[in-house]
Amino acid sequence: MRLTNEESAALLNKFWSGQPVPSPKTGRPMRAFFVDRTFNPQVVMIGGAGEHLRFDQKPRQIEFSAGHIKSMVRDAKERENPVCPQDFEPLVVARTPAVRFPNEWDWQFHCPKCFSFGGWEYTDKKDDVVAKPAVRKDAPAFHDETIPLPKRMEMAKGGDLALKLYAAMAQTDCTACGWDCEGYAKAIADGTEKNISLCVPGKAETEDVLKKLVAGTYSFA
Ligand code: SF4
Ligand SMILES: [Zn+2]
């Protein structure tokens, strides 16, 4: 039995939110667990009668943030392909007539790779789509994913190691690493996290800078 992306996403959503996961065949709860392997972490679900489902979870499923959703809607409206903020996979986009506004659209987005998901319902607030995602007041100025990495490093030059590590992250707060960007930086700085390759959207560029910062060999431009 092949599941659609939506069906897979719904099962994973139940799993990650701690709810029972019903078998698509019988509706009875399946045994479900996370197999945390470095290269191929998976969620495995086992139902009665030999039912066996596996879902790759690198990166892990998330629900897209409001900021992500807004830029996806903007892209979709401009006929550009919105991509998953975690793995840059082109998203599956569905639109349906908005419930209360028949001339407008509601949007649903699914990532076919990590099964992350999110939806947007049209309201009549004008700035709903064009508004920039709110910046956290206490966030440093470099906490903006549109600023290139070397520039962000320059902005964090006078800070301590944790701040410099923070500046090297991709700044999306996507939580694919298991924290937000600041949390992951702090965990590396205080030694609780040794793995420097967890920033999924930052890719090799971030990892390279993290490696040099930890080794004390990073030189500012
Ligand atoms: S540091 Fe973590 S939260 Fe920030 S962009 Fe990278 S993976 Fe996402
Ligand atoms: Zn994805």
Task: List the defining traits of the structure above.
three-stranded antiparallel beta sheet, 16% strand, 3-methyladenine DNA Glycosylase II, Chain A, domain 3, binds iron/sulfur cluster, 221 residues
Mean pLDDT: 89
In terms of per-residue confidence, which ranges show pLDDT below 50 for 5 or more consecutive residues?
130-134
The CATH class of the largest domain: Mainly Alpha
Summed up, the domain count is 3
How would you describe the oligomerization state of the chains in this entry? single chain
**What hetero molecules are bound to the protein chains?**
iron/sulfur cluster, zinc ion
Description:
- The structure is a single chain.
- This protein is an alpha+beta fold and 221 residues long.
- The chain folds into three domains: 5-56, no CATH class; 66-128, no CATH class; 149-215, 3-methyladenine DNA Glycosylase II, Chain A, domain 3, CATH 1.10.15.
- The chain is built from six helices and seven strands.
- The chain has a four-stranded antiparallel sheet with strand order 1-2-3-4, with helices on one face.
- The protein is flat, with a radius of gyration of 20 Å.
- The chain starts with a helix and ends in a 6-residue tail after the last helix.
- Mean pLDDT is 89; it is low at 130-134.
- Bound molecules: iron/sulfur cluster and zinc ion (ZN).
- Residues 84, 86-87, 89, 111, 113-114, 116 line the site of zinc ion.
